[in-house]
TrEMBL record:
InterPro entries in UniProt: ATP-NAD_kinase_N, Diacylglycerol_kinase_cat_dom, NAD/diacylglycerol_kinase_sf, PAP2/HPO, PAP2/HPO_sf
Pfam families: DAGK_cat, PAP2
Lineage top rank: taxon: Bacteria
Topology in the lipid bilayer: Multi-pass membrane protein
Full protein name: Undecaprenyl-diphosphatase
Amino acid sequence: MSRAVSRIPESVVDRGMLRLTRSANTGGLWLAVAAALAVKPGPPRRAALRGVIALGGSSFVVNLVLKTLIPRRRPPAELMPLGRRLVTAPVSSSFPSGHSSNAAAFATAVALESPRTALAVAPVAAAVAYSRIHTGAHWPSDVLVGAGVGTAIALTTRRWWPIRESDEADAHVVHDAPILADGKGLLLLVNPRSGDSSYDPTDDIAQALPAAGLVRTEPGRDAVELLQEAVDAAVGASAEHTSVLAVGAAVGASAEHTSVLAVGAAGGDGTIAAAAAVAIRNNLPLVVIPAGTLNHFARDLGVYDLREVADATGAGEAVEVDIAAVEFDTADGPYQHHWINTASIGAYPELVRLREKWEDRWGKWPAFAAALVVTLRRAEPIHIRLDDRWHDMWFLFIGNGPYHPHGAVPAFRSRLDEGLLDVRWLRADVRFSRTRAVIALMLAAIGHSRVYGERQMHELTVTSRTPVAVAADGEVVGIATTFDFSVAGRIPTYRRDEDNPRWENRPRPHHRRPLAWLTDRRR
């Protein structure tokens, strides 16, 4: 192939190839592209960060490992016309091509996060790889192997920083969920302080679900009690054959109801958890409107905007979802708190706070790594009895359902109805445990480290020698010495059935599987 390329007539393309191949020296071209992508939040910024990580891995593996172990002569200078040759010929081993590896690593990493962006990056990467043959810097086999190495390194980043392969978690379909036409029969808790502080979703919800009763959160009032009072008032009024117009005045409802068929919430995970607690106590279906900052539960559920909620409730489409609970004693007696995502004891809440603060800029895995270092440096060990043995731990994590990936950063759930708790902990009773944990995380080997433990169980009792705080869904909910964690039950939760032809022309405004948007007919 090199000889065939050498016979191509000289043209202005030669000058362009020389400039392109020089621009990619030491990864400069890709760092510039990454800087441009990082300006835009969301997938482009994550693509830039993953690309830079893959670029660093590619440079290390190719230049410091493979080129050292596999020496190979470069193509002879006279093979290419004079106007096509590099002014300064490389002196390192020809095998494999570092430029090709870097180009493939960066383009593949970008494709994992933002397939649309990759459509623009991939041709440039291919041109850089070809330029190494066109300028006589490499043999074709150097370029092919280099591209393969770079691609493999980019795909390996998923071990540290997983890519979610599906749009939403699986769950059993509910076939008898009530149809809430225009929101009729729905009492909805609205938290106007969730998410964007400049946006109050109340008016949009009232327009999309005009028959729903809206209950706004109040500062200083417990959200569970507020929604439960609204349910009690509506049910009582229905029993007395009273117009719910009067009930609406009492509870802040925006329309008439004859009965409460479902409850829900518009807000972040804390607000959703409050509505879930009321739903499970009253044996009612749950409606989730993502109006918070991160909306972890809504993303796992597969609900992304208000239109999807209106579609699902209007068609009676729902799935079964587990709701977890933690019970402990307080000064006022036993207390039960329901939660939907995660609970934790120890330093984990601070770790999550820092990770969420940084992940929009850096991505989830890099933000988690940085947060872990900062949190462990500040943390104090906690003494916990688990499985009839006392342990010193940095933190204890409990997930409502198994999280993925195993032995790594908990990122997402593949099912919402497993009936299991995902229990993970980081030991503090191992020598140099903090350092070992950070190194193991960087090597994607935390699941095999002695400092890490993981188990799945139906229920869990945790005892501490001294009072410790427990956090659920990112908020501290109490302080005690003994906590009982369990899956409290399963409730129908509205979610649009994407296999229903009725929604064929309803595009979904969220991150889909890499390249799926090219073939998905719903797009």
